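[job 4471] stage=fold_predict status=RUNNING
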Amino acid sequence: MSEISALVVAAPYPVEVLPADPQRAGACLAALEITTRSWLGALLANSGGLVVDHGWLRVLGGGHDGLPDVAAEMAPGAGRLVVAFDVMGGQFAWLQAEPGVRPTVHYFGPEDLAWQDLGLGYGDWLEAMLAGAMTQFYEGLRWPGWEAEVAGVALDQGISALPPPWTREGKDLSAVSRKPISLAELASVHQDAARQLGFL
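[job 4471] inference complete, writing structure tokens
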């Protein structure tokens, strides 16, 4: 965890480390069959999760009030482990794209409703997000004054935009109607839209 702690301290935007629940963390490690030697295991054992950049990104750990633990987000049979959510309902998942290939982190974004392989292992992805990559990664999804608005949203909530970011009318997020809703509901709305449009 010392490497992750160093990144948290040096991050160019605020990062809050949520307190760990040792009992819950232990159950989570057992469910995922991983050790604390991995970055995912270390984060899980030593924190309830990370709240990055005013709450824009919520990296899942051992779980905290309003934030699920990593094991709770395991999709049975999908081979996909959701490791983070963003405030717009985007999801980061660690998965093996094909047998024999190293698992990488994929992103499902509300602006294109498709899974993209970021080509990074979990540790490399987390390091990039904490080292400043978020600013460029989310450039198209932010609006003036987003920091204060996002900071006021609860951990179990995201921001729903109407028209949504995947429509032509919803591309400019400063001009849409925005409101906090349940993060689980928001992620589900994006997934449903992707299925209806034939993207998944």
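[job 4471] summary: Residues 122-137 form the longest helix (16 residues).
[job 4471] exit 0
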